[in-house]
UniProtKB/TrEMBL annotation:
Keywords: Glycosidase, Hydrolase. GO terms for biological process: carbohydrate metabolic process. Residues 195-502 form the Glycoside hydrolase family 20 catalytic domain. CDD domains: GH20_DspB_LnbB-like. Gene3D superfamilies: Chitobiase/beta-hexosaminidase domain 2-like, Glycosidases. This is Beta-N-acetylglucosaminidase.
């Protein structure tokens, strides 16, 4: 062998040794850095693979993966701790499992949505599992949750099933349209406990199917209340056994309402009913004209019931009691707004029967405002006895009355324009809890009558917060804890102005902007253009 050939052979052997050594080192390194909880190596493999899908080998989350980015969801998650790893994607054959049987509804729903199998309550662990669990942390917000994506699996835990459900909504959005849930830990909870949509189904009849679609939409967005204003001058829209004569032709059956309520409960949404009184009772008065309020001149203001007559209280209480069985949630809206007896310059002279009834009930100095406040208190007592917390519109609370509104009446603040409406700080300063329905931002009034215009998601997103209760000015931050949250509202003043489909399309972005501001108190990280694009991507 020549010297040149010998030298060439020596270099080939050296190079081969180097290649083998490097390859072995990399392989050992990949396994050695994939300890438990890091999502790679043996710790990420299934502990029971015989009956499940074969785990796909995954590189360890070391320098081969960049740190994960926070998921993009609506509403945005409050906290995400990044990690290195491939994340998680749903695949056919993977399982959703629960650690507690109380989470079966959440587990079945998620499995069906992601095309996975629901394996029920089990302690075994397989590759690709999504596990739902109750954390047992009694002191935490029941709507909070933690979601951990690690080792090819997902765990969603929370102190109550509501929080776990919201975690499943985050996961569903993360993987929408073929994406992956990023590696890491999400810790999330809402800023406000009331996140609602109210729909006036009295003036415009909405079908049960349309309402059910809104329930599904609200659930995915982490709303937790749906208000149904189902009695007004133009219609009474749910069938009644106690007073069938007041019900409109176009209505929901009780069976339909039960399905709506059950669907809402599955998505941790409370349905809040409203039978507005003593105004907005035109549909009831049409069937009982003897209860119509009349002035001394014989004029009959629309929708106003005569609260000096005992029969007026009897029929309203009959209805409140009847529908308590249909709506088992803890909240009840009593209305109380725009009673036309108080929208004249001299209520006592215009309606002397009301002035007489006020004096008989509350003393010689009592006013029509006192009588009206007493009416609201009596209706609050009716629903309170049924285990409900009452709520009333802010212009149903009057300044300077000798009769004080019940202490537990929550203020549904919608306007500063009506007679009797006062600045929100007056209610808050008196210690009352308040739900924000600000008509400047959150009122979608069909046909845009008076000064109303259809609200835009951009305006809500950029200019509204729960502290902006009236107009465009925020109340002092010291009242933040008393503001329970907010509700977007759809009103049917000119019901034929839009179809159901147009209403759904019109409120789509306002709903998303509203819940973003109710869930996360921080300044949004995304611009409006980015937020709208995200909403389009999420569907």
């Amino acid at each position: 062998m020549s010297a040149r050939a010998a030298l060439r052979r020596t270099w080939v052997l050296v190079l081969a040794v180097v290649v083998v050594t490097v390859a072995a080192g990399v392989g050992l390194g990949l396994w050695a850095t994939g300890g438990d909880g890091d999502g790679g190596g043996p710790a990420g493999a299934s502990q029971d693979t015989a009956a499940g899908p074969s785990p796909t080998p995954t590189p360890s989350p070391t320098r081969w993966y960049p740190l994960s980015k926070a998921p993009r969801t609506i509403p945005a998650v409050r906290s995400h701790t990044p990690a290195r790893g491939p994340g998680w994607k749903p695949e056919k054959g993977l399982r959703v499992v629960v650690s507690d049987g109380d989470l079966a509804d959440e587990g079945r729903l998620l499995a069906g949505e992601l095309g996975m199998s629901y394996a029920g309550e089990t302690a075994d662990v397989r590759a690709g599992d999504v596990r739902l669990a109750l954390s047992g942390d009694e002191g935490a917000d029941p709507e909070s949750y933690t979601m951990t994506v690690r080792g090819g699996r997902v765990t969603i835990s929370g102190p109550a099933d509501a929080g776990v459900f919201y975690g499943t909504r985050t996961l569903k959005q993360e993987v929408r349209r073929g994406g992956a849930a990023p590696e890491g830990v999400v810790r999330d909870e809402p800023a406000k406990p009331v996140r609602g949509l109210m729909v006036d189904i009295a003036r415009k009849h909405f079908t049960a199917a349309w309402i059910e679609d809104r329930v599904r939409e609200l659930g995915d967005l982490k709303f937790n209340q749906l208000g149904l204003h189902f009695s007004d001058d133009q219609g009474f829209r749910i069938e009644s056994d106690s007073h069938p004569e007041v019900v409109s032709r176009d209505r929901l059956t009780k069976a339909q309402v039960r399905r709506i309520v059950a669907l809402a409960a599955q998505r941790h949404i409370t349905v809040v009913p409203e039978i507005d009184s003593p105004g907005h009772l035109g549909a009831v008065i049409d069937a009982h004209p003897e209860l119509q309020l009349r002035s001394a001149a014989g004029l009959a203001p629309q929708g106003a019931i005569d609260i000096s007559k005992p029969a007026s209280a009897e029929i309203v209480d009959d209805l409140l009691k009847e529908y308590a069985e249909l709506f088992p949630g803890a909240e009840w809206h009593l209305g109380g707004d725009e009673y036309r007896a108080l929208m004249v310059s001299n209520p006592a002279a215009t309606y002397p029967q009301l002035a007489t009834a006020a004096r008989e009930a509350y003393g010689s100095g009592a006013t029509v405002s006192d009588l009206t406040t007493g009416w609201l208190n009596d209706r609050a007592a009716t629903v309170r006895a049924l285990g409900r917390t009452p709520r009333a519109w802010n212009d149903g609370f009057f300044r300077g009355t000798s009769v004080r509104p019940a202490d537990d009446l929550r203020v549904a603040y919608w306007t500063g324009k009506e007679i009797g409406a006062r600045p929100p700080a007056e209610y808050l300063g008196a210690g009352r809890k308040l739900v924000n329905y600000n008509d400047e931002f959150l009122y979608y009034v069909l046909g845009q009558p008076l000064t109303f215009v259809y609200p835009t998601g951009q305006r809500i997103y950029e200019r509204w917060t729960p502290l902006v209760v009236r107009g465009t000015q925020a109340v002092p931050s010291k009242y933040d804890d008393q503001i329970l949250g907010g509700s977007f509202a759809v009103w049917g003043d000119l019901p034929n102005s839009q179809t159901q489909a147009q209403v759904a399309a019109g409120i789509r972005m306002p709903l998303r902007a509203t819940v973003q501001k109710l869930w996360d108190p921080r300044e949004p990280a995304l611009s409006w253009t980015e937020f709208r694009a995200l909403a389009d991507r999420l569907g």
